[in-house]
Amino acid sequence: MPEERIQKQPFFSRIKSRIYFIKEWILSMIRKIQCSIHSICGKLKQAGDRIFWIRAKWEAVCTFIQDPANQKSAKLILRQIKKIFQYLLPRKGKAAITFGIEDPYQMGQILSAASILYPLIHNHISLCPVFDQKVLEGEVHIRGHIRWGVLFGYGLRLLLDGTIRKQIWNWIGPSKKRKRGNPIAT
To answer: How do residues 76-122 score in pLDDT, each as one tens digit?
Structure first.
């Protein structure tokens, strides 16, 4: 039976290989720490740039809002939008709604929510709850009128305001200039 001998490495070569292994491990850790530090520094720089950009935009918005001409235009826009919605609402209307859910608890919740508005709309809407089946039926009759000339007049009133017109051109204009290749500072 042949004896297998495991040849052992000499003592100094084993120590040398372990020292080499420890040296490589330490160097790899140092490289990882350097990469982490570079990554953190890059992210901090990006965050600083982002904060600077947000601060610049915030200051631009604040100056835009604090300008009295813009405040006057904003009031005009809100007033015109209110008039448009009042114009678009129907003049007369009636509705008959039959609805139901199989669960009586949910049906009670729906009816309790509807009871809040019902004193205001009882002449225009009639509600018929059905408690034992799932149903949703309705009949709605609405009368009103929409004339394009009136809506055009409200829009024209907005366009006649010089500040609104300038803002519209500022929003439309820069995109056309960028397409031509002229850089615009923001």
So the answer is: 999 999 999 888 888 888 999 999 998 889 999 999 998 898 888 88
Tracing tokens 């290749």 back to the chain, one arrives at: 181
Q: Which amino acid is at 6?
A: I
What does R_g of the chain's alpha carbons equal in angstroms? 37
Q: Are 77 and 168 in contact (CB under 8 A)?
A: no
| Cα 130–Cα 136–Cα 141 angle in degrees, nearest 5 | 110
pTM of the model: 0.47
Determine how many CB atoms are found less than 10 A away from the CB of residue 151: 14
Determine how many CB atoms are found less than 10 A away from the CB of residue 164. 20
Question: Cα dist. 142→16, 53, 93, 94, 148 in Å?
Answer: 95, 51, 4, 7, 19
CA angle, 73 then 158 then 162, to 5°: 60
* Tokens 């001998």, residue located: 5
103 vs 95: CA distance, rounded Å: 24
